Amino acid sequence: MSILPQHKYYLARSPTHYPWHRKRVIFSATTTTTNPKSSPDQLTIEPQLVNPPNPVPSISSRPVLNDPSLQSTWSHRTWVATGCTTVLVSLAKGIVGAAHSHIWFEPMLAGYIGYILADLGSGVYHWGIDNYGNESTPIFGNQIEAFQGHHKWPWTITRRQFANNLHALARTVAFFVLPIDLVCNDPIVNSFVGVCAGCIMFSQQFHAWAHGTKSKLPPPVVALQDAGLLVSRSQHAAHHRQPYNNNYCIVSGVWNEFLDKNKVFEALEMALYFKLGVRPRSWSEPTSDWTEDAETTSQVAVQ
Ligand SMILES: [Zn+2]
Ligand SMILES: [Zn+2]
């Protein structure tokens, strides 16, 4: 056990200054002889709260390795299993329908279009929750808060367990795809929906892989990233650097260059500002507060 003071940082919102102020808890190591049954040299760890956070939001706190907020629950796994089932049913219906009708080109083209549009959808969604709303926004609040935390501590996504990372999108996919599975028997529609919804659901996994190091990723994943079929590590790294307002797409990243070169999101931000008076977060907040806080060796030592 280390006897050095260990600092864990927590974050508390200020009502006037988003995003965060750091407070810290200092764990000091002392010896005690107050318990007669104890050895005189017994070490006790006494946490001393300095400027206690008030209150400490659990999701918003700086995660530590093996943080419970990064682990999957049975609820997460159930939603991912449900989402995967609806996607597989849609793909199966597409294949079976194509086999029965002997039409293969159109369903395959529909699946390809679904893959391409899923990347665009991931970019629009990511841009939206990066820039608008907050943790109390209905429906999207948790996702908005999670993505803000991701910008602050990008490394956490590589520690987040699979179902924990995918469950929110899996739930959305399940709700949208299940009714289509039940009523639609068109192989073209089924193929489009299956591929598009599957890519959107797994976009968070592709995102996690984009934060991985090449030597630790499975070789097929690296090959797909290098081929441009999954969002590359270098392309997504640019999203986490100044000016923090580009490379939002996280399926294949094929749309990123077009969207950023043509300033599509900047145009949308201007339109929303002039129509509704709402300023996107990227205009003001990506300052030093969004500086990437990489996983440090001291965090590993704490564990
Ligand atoms: Zn982002
Ligand atoms: Zn990221």
From TrEMBL:
**Record carries keyword Membrane:** yes
Any single Gene Ontology cellular-component annotation: membrane
Keywords of the record, alphabetical order, are: Membrane, Transmembrane, Transmembrane helix
Q: Where in this protein does the record put region Disordered? A: 281-303
Q: Which domain of life is it from?
A: Eukaryota
**Transmembrane residue ranges:** none
Q: How does it sit in the membrane?
A: Multi-pass membrane protein
Where does this protein reside within or beyond the cell? Membrane
Query: Residues in domain Lipid desaturase?
Result: 115-283
Cited InterPro entries = Chloroplast_FAD_CarF, Lipid_desat
Give the similarity note.
Belongs to the fatty acid desaturase CarF family.
UniProt-recorded name of the protein: Lipid desaturase domain-containing protein
- What is the originating organism of this protein? Dovyalis caffra
Lineage summary: Eukaryota, Viridiplantae, Streptophyta, Embryophyta, Tracheophyta
